[in-house]
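User: Hi! Is it possible to get a structure for several chains at once, not just one? Here's what I have:
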Amino acid sequence: MTALLEVEDLRITFPTRSGPAEVVRGVSFSLGRERLGIVGESGSGKSQTGRAILGLTPPPGRATAKRLSFDGRDLRQATAAEWRGLRGRRISMVMQDPKFSLNPVMTIGRQLMEAGRRSARNGSEARSKALAMLEAVQIRDPDRVFHAYPHELSGGMGQRAMIAMMLITEPDLLIADEPTSALDVTVQIEVLRILDRLVRERGMGLIFISHDLRLVSSFCDRVLVMYAGRVVEEVRAGALGEAKHPYTQGLFNCLPRIEDDKRPLPTLERDAAWAG
Amino acid sequence: MAMIDVENLSVTFGAKGARVRAVRGVSFAVARGESFGIVGESGSGKSTVLRALVGLAPVSGGQLALDGTPLVGRRPPEFYRRVQMVFQDPYASLHPRHTVDRVLSEPLAIHGFDDRETRIARALDDVGLGQGFRFRYPHQLSGGQRQRVAIARALILEPEVLLLDEPTSALDASIQAEVLNLLDRIRAERGLTYVLVSHDLAVVAHMCERLLVMQHGAAVEELTRDDLRRRAATQDYTRALLAASEGYRAAEEATP
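Assistant: Yes, the chains can be modeled jointly so their relative placement is included. Here is the combined structure:
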């Protein structure tokens, strides 16, 4: 099986007053049609890694890589036109907060139809596709949501509408950057279930970026743990207890648990060598 | 006598046309030196209960009391000497153009405390920051350090009750552990009474002996920490929260 996405030695630098700062330092991984988690704390470079795959490193930042290929195509030399053909159509991205990523003055339906316009032959087909997509993300009353503005929806509904929009073009790869962090825990599980089903039914690849180690390891097939711009460990999901790296162990152990009563909670002793 | 007594509390926002009943008949009592948790999802009214206690939300019904004294209308300064609050977002709750020193001096000036120098120095040591942070601005601090400053500000008046509104939900997991340990240690040392509000069942279970589950402004059920460990929840909603706190399980798909 050829990999859907291959990343080798990805580096992202931002110029600062005290010289260039490297925020991602040599990240390599390959992705098939599976669920890959990227976990790290704030500033670990996990979101920048996700953005770089779509060529969305914000200037003046620069992303370089020895290899960055999607479905056999080299993305490093992609022109603006080639990117337009990929973004949204073959690779989509879901951001953290639906409040900021939906257009507040357009109804959900119009936004969905705009996303799906290129793949539909006419208006009525685009409309029925949009409604079908809303149903696919478990929205019970697609007609109401179709005509609603983003402020009329709850956070969970908005995020589902966002996912529907990203999936209407049937992409091969979905990058989800903290897609459920702004949601309540019970809604979170529902949104994950939708993503899970889409990965299994459509054979989509999924990169799930999150700070929540417990959630990611219970959801993804494997997990990359990032620290200070590097991947310090790759863990098989469900095998977090066997993690080797002290950072992964520390991150896992410092979470309070309902079952046991560790007092004080173990804290994370950072070792300068991890960043090396 | 209970330190905090909440009887049938109701909070209603808005005028005639669009009324929102944010809290509907919630009652609980917290003993002196106890740590009490309120758990719920967004919109459950959990933060509004805390805000009603300190007089920041319009109470439309029920009684509140601190140590037997009824709380009605505007709170007197002595109230804030005894009860302090720590807010969720350390990025929003500190004035961006005030140094740590100024943030900590203000409550002392308002309440007419003397020997401010030593009190500020001690408050900074208590929260594990030290003197080096005294003249920094919030933008020079990390999220965890800011939350420590917010805790120092609450502690500097030597209150008896600390109301904590999601004190760690804006922080990374490793920093959360440090702040929770700090709060735990301070309570053990000073015998403080805590009311902690959180959406995270594990955090509340770690910090509190008893907790109240809220949904849509109403109380769902009250549990002890041991009930939670034994999964002895009687309400479906609490069970759903317990299941969600364990992460994602594909097996759940088969149930609905």
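The radius of gyration of chain B is 19 Å. Chain B touches chain A through 35 residues (CB under 8 Å).

User: Great, thank you!
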